[in-house]
Amino acid sequence: xxxxxxxxxxxxxxxxxxxxxxxxxxxxxxxxxxxxxxxxxxxxxxxxxxxxxxxxxxxxxxxxxxxxxxxxxxxxxxxxxxxxxxxxxxxxxxxxxxxxxxxxxxxxxxxxxxxxxxxxxxxxxxxxxxxxxxxxxxxxxxxxxxxxxxxxxxxxxxxxxxxxxxxxxxxxxxxxxxxxxxxxxxxxxxxxxxxxxxxxxxxxxxxxxxxxxxxxxxxxxxxxxxxxxxxxxxxxxxxxxxxxxxx
Length: 247
Known about the structure:
Elements: H1 7-12, H2 31-39, H3 44-59, H4 63-66, E1 74-76, E2 83-88, E3 95-99, H5 104-111, H6 121-135, E4 145-148, H7 152-159, E5 173-176, H8 183-196, H9 202-209, H10 214-218, H11 225-246
Antiparallel strand pairs: 1-2, 2-3, 4-5
């Protein structure tokens, strides 16, 4: 936007608000899609990328954390009743204790004898899109088109006539969901799926994710309007059933 970015200027200019239409699209994988990804037959590096990515989907952490798990991070909770993953988040230095809700975490851990593959986020981002594209043949929801925006590199390529991006009737760029999947999709998927279960409070989920503010936490919930409507209707139905059981 031609705004100066030296130190003095940054103290003067107000933060430029980013409109929702200017943001890159965010998606998440629902539990059925995650199960299909987990069951997908893969080998070699593609299998390792999928498994590391799934750890993020089941534990709700950043790639800098789910890509560096060790055997020592797995232990029993203080009560001795449940298995948890406990570590200090690299970005924020928050200590988190994540209950292992999904049995698939144990299966992946045992597959590698808790010596998890170390794969750069660049490689994960490159391969996970191709894996999801292949999976979309049997899971069509992954190929559904989403509105999004172009980054600066994509804009330059399009302006140079080297590539043409698909647009909808209103002129918005659209891409299939599998192209929207990145390492960060894993964290988003876990938070959104647990939120949609309607059994955990926001405070409990923030304890797992390590978020300190509810505003930042809410950015990771990717529910559609239909999913939110279903959640409200389900809560109302359960409340109605509870009232009827009382009388």
